[in-house]
């Protein structure tokens, strides 16, 4: 693609050099630039892309986009100076990848909890209805058999448009995207032409980034406001949770048509007669498109909400209620989300990503309803994240579990003992008898396995699908699921610890 075709949409720009050069790739990471590349210098929280312009040139960049003066560049490198590189990034990315969301029906799902499960439910329903659908989120980018790893829940602007382009080339008709508050705040979804946006819920999380709940709520507002205000935009849809008070706030900030779902309050798509059982859960649903009885293999009221959000979204796409019922009945869940680990024992083990107060509470409540024996929780709080939620989560774990093993999560640069001290500050109302601290996460999981008796259930929370454990500068390959299985093997070989009565 010729550079001029990328820059002609930029209103304020100063160009030094030729715009006739061929651009074969673009990136904000100088390490990813290849010959023929366009490097965009974006100031970040920790590093400034302007400091890496020469590195990008050594890797083959033929043009640099910057928002401030750079040292003298080689004569064969074109420099484009703009007021704000982050703001023009989606313009460049959309042009380079040929506006992929104009050729896809794009569904965005935002909220504190439930994004990953809801996107997977929508993906399954649409694919089962023979509408080829790709998914982008915490776990991966996937369309058909093509899978790519993602570094963020919502990838950066260039990576995101590249993913959409890949979906188009693979014959995709729909794309379902997890939209994080970080992604919204950093402008990653600018230039994305959403057809439908879905709100799951809003609760305490990410306050290390957003400072307070009002700021967190307002950031998610951007997704609904970006649906636009033209007559065409009024044909777009906002799917809102009628049981979450933030929905009324978002409803006032979009011109899209609104469809609601819920359980407690009146809603367009509403579930009643909910039963949570060991095999999953059942409920009755009433909608403008008909009524029906549904069954899920996944547990908990929170998954009923996820199913309602997915159902509403797909009903708006013309999928029949019966088709949706069949797909949801077959839905087996998502890796690391209330994932049952096959142990071959008479106790149960669940690995769940719950990493904020509301998510942890929902997981433990759901588990309690289907547990005949005692419930043992393994949980920790990760470093460099919202510190205010640490005592809240410890209190929830001790309140809803028979026994808790407090341990570490990814501590990053923080002192694990300091994190633990902040967690334990929330336990003033609980007896010391129903919890203990084992900072080594592997030992904590092993301890839980050794404590479990017949019909007990172990809930290991916080990391879910993650396969790498980060402490300081050390990165270790380690998943909670693998540690459970290894602990069981050790028990079979007689490697056991002394365990107290619970």
Account of the 3D structure:
The protein is an alpha/beta fold and 502 residues long. It has three domains: 3-96, 3-Layer(aba) Sandwich (Udp-n-acetylmuramoylalanyl-d-glutamate--2,6- Diaminopimelate Ligase, Chain: A, domain 1), CATH 3.40.1390.10; 100-330, Mur-like, catalytic domain (UDP-N-acetylmuramoyl-L-alanine:D-glutamate ligase); 339-492, Alpha-Beta Complex (Protein-Tyrosine Phosphatase, Chain A). The chain contains 16 helices and 24 strands. It has helices spanning 3-7, 53-58, 85-96, 115-128, 157-169, 181-185, 207-210, 213-225, 246-251, 301-315, 321-330, 357-369, 389-400, 416-424, 441-451, 480-492, and strands at 14-16, 25-27, 37-40, 61-66, 78-81, 105-110, 133-136, 141-143, 146-148, 174-178, 194-199, 237-241, 257-262, 269-277, 280-287, 290-296, 339-341, 348-352, 375-379, 403-406, 435-437, 457-461, 468-471, 474-477. Strand 15 and strand 16 form a beta hairpin. Helix 15 (441-451) packs across helix 16 (480-492). The longest helix is centred in the middle third of the chain and has 15 residues, at 301-315. The model is unreliable at 495-502 (pLDDT under 50).
Give the tags.
UDP-N-acetylmuramoyl-L-alanine:D-glutamate ligase, disordered C terminus, 11-stranded mixed beta sheet, 6-stranded mixed beta sheet, 23% strand, 32% helix
Give the topology, please.
Elements: H1 3-7, E1 14-16, E2 25-27, E3 37-40, H2 53-58, E4 61-66, E5 78-81, H3 85-96, E6 105-110, H4 115-128, E7 133-136, E8 141-143, E9 146-148, H5 157-169, E10 174-178, H6 181-185, E11 194-199, H7 207-210, H8 213-225, E12 237-241, H9 246-251, E13 257-262, E14 269-277, E15 280-287, E16 290-296, H10 301-315, H11 321-330, E17 339-341, E18 348-352, H12 357-369, E19 375-379, H13 389-400, E20 403-406, H14 416-424, E21 435-437, H15 441-451, E22 457-461, E23 468-471, E24 474-477, H16 480-492
Parallel strand pairs: 2-3, 3-4, 4-5, 6-10, 6-11, 7-10, 11-12, 12-13, 13-14, 18-22, 19-20, 19-22, 20-21
Antiparallel strand pairs: 1-5, 7-8, 8-9, 14-15, 15-16, 17-18, 23-24
Helix pairs in contact: 3-5, 4-10, 4-11, 12-13, 13-14, 15-16
């Amino acid at each position: 693609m010729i550079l001029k075709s990328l820059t002609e949409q930029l209103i304020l720009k100063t160009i030094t050099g030729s715009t006739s050069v061929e651009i074969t790739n673009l990136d904000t990471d100088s390490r990813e630039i290849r010959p023929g590349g366009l490097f965009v210098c974006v100031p970040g929280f920790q590093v400034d892309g302007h400091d890496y312009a020469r590195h990008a040139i050594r890797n083959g960049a033929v043009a640099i986009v910057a928002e401030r003066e750079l040292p003298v560049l080689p004569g064969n490198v074109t420099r484009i100076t703009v007021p704000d590189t982050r703001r023009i990034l989606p313009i460049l990315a959309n042009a380079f990848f040929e506006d992929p969301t104009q050729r896809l029906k794009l569904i965005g799902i935002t909220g504190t909890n439930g994004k990953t499960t809801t996107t997977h439910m929508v993906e399954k329903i649409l694919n089962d209805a023979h509408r080829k659908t790709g998914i982008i989120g915490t776990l991966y980018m996937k369309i058909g058999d093509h899978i790519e790893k993602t570094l963020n829940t919502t990838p950066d602007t260039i990576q995101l448009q590249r993913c959409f382009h890949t979906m188009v080339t693979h014959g995709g008709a729909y794309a379902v995207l997890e939209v994080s508050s970080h992604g919204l705040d950093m402008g990653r979804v600018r230039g994305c032409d959403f057809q439908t946006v879905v709100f799951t819920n809003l609760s305490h999380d990410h306050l290390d980034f957003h400072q307070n709940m009002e700021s967190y709520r307002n950031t998610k507002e951007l997704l609904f406001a970006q649906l636009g205000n033209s007559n065409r935009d009024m044909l777009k849809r906002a799917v809102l949770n009628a049981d979450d008070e933030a929905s009324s706030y978002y409803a006032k900030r979009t011109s899209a048509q609104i469809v609601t779902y819920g359980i407690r309050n009146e809603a367009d798509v509403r579930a009643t007669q909910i039963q949570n059982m060991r095999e999953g859960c059942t409920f009755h649903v009433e909608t403008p498109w008909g009524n029906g009885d549904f069954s899920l293999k996944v547990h908990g009221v929170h998954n009923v909400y996820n199913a309602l959000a997915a159902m509403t979204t797909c009903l708006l796409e013309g999928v029949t209620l019966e088709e949706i019922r069949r797909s949801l009945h077959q839905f087996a869940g998502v890796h690391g989300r209330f994932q049952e680990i096959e142990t071959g024992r008479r106790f149960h083990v669940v690995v769940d990503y719950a990493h904020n107060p509301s998510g942890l509470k929902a997981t433990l409540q759901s588990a309690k309803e289907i547990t005949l024996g005692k419930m043992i929780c393994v949980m920790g709080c990760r470093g460099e994240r919202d510190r205010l939620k640490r005592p809240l989560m410890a209190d929830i774990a001790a309140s809803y579990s028979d026994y808790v093993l407090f341990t570490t999560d990814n501590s990053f640069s923080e002192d694990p003992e300091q994190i633990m001290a902040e967690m334990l500050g929330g336990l003033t109302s609980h007896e010391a008898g129903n919890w203990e601290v084992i900072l080594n996460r592997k030992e904590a999981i092993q301890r839980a396995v050794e404590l479990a008796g017949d019909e007990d259930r172990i809930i290991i929370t916080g990391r879910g699908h993650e396969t790498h454990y980060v402490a300081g500068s050390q990165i270790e390959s380690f998943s909670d699921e693998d540690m459970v299985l290894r602990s069981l093997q050790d028990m079979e070989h007689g490697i056991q610890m002394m365990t107290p009565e619970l």
